[in-house]
Every structure is written in C-alpha cells, then in structure tokens.
Amino acid sequence: MQNWEEPAGCKTKASASTWSKYGNKRTYSPFFYSVDAYDQITGKYRLMGLNPTEGSSALGEVAADRNTSEKYYFEGRLNWNRQFDKHSVGAMTVMMVQENLFSTKGGSIFEALPERNVGNSGRLTYDFDERYFVEFGYGYNGSKKFTGSKQFSKIQYWLGVGFAEKFTLETECGRFQR
Length: 178
Description:
mainly beta
C-alpha cells in the first residue's frame, strides 16, 4: 500500500460525531399505610395497609410512550493555498453529511423516519500583491425528507462573488501608507 502525501499547500481535515438518547417511562404503585394503633409510652405502633392488593414492590412494565433519538454527523474539509511570486491562490471545499433518527410513542429506532441532510460548500480565492482580492463562493445543500423522485428536490444552490482592494498599500493614498 502506498502512502498518500498531501500536495504542497494542501491541508485535509475530517471529523465525525454521534449522539444518541433513549428514554422511557416506568410506573410504580407503592403500598400505602396508616397508623392503626400507637402506644405513647413504649413508642410501639401497628400499621394498617390501605391498599394491600393494589400496591407493588417492583417497577411496572415499560410504557408505550418511550422516546429514542440518534444523530450522526460527518464533515470533510480540503484546503489548498499557494503563492506564486505576487499572486496567491486558494481553494477550499467542505462536505457535510448529517442524519437524524427520531422515534416517539413506543416506536423502535428502527421504525423511525430518517432526516438526512447533505451539503457541499467552498470558495476559490485570488489576490495580487496582497492588494487586490477576488473570491468566488458556492454552496449546494439538499435534504432527503421526501420519497421517490422528490428526494433532494428541495436542493438549494448559491453562488457568491466578492472583490476588494487594500487602499492602504496604494501610492496614490500616501497619507494612508504604513
């Protein structure tokens, strides 16, 4: 197996996380007692059961309203920056995948409908002599909350462009120079 080396100026990062929660409701029917007789001199007393056939010394069965949830998240990032003489270029992309599973009212986590979200966003940057800057950004997001042909039908795509100039480095702005 060959070792992979990152190209010059390239950095990668990946992260993953998971979270789960399980909750249920159990009931308890305690025995209730009342003092039937009490001797104030000796301090002895006798108890009388108020519900001898209805109480229980153990927890009841799991109620049908248990709640479960799980979340999974993965993110991968690739970042590249290089400088050529007075030119600097850069690129970054981030990929995200998320899944949420929710089950309530007695359903099993295996019966839960998943909510899946996928996204990719990134940017391309360029600057000349640390004076003039251009940046292009994009994003692509989708969700799998629908079935069949409607999966990812609500995809959102956006594109952005930005320009900037650092006036403090311009000779025409002599009073702003360092």
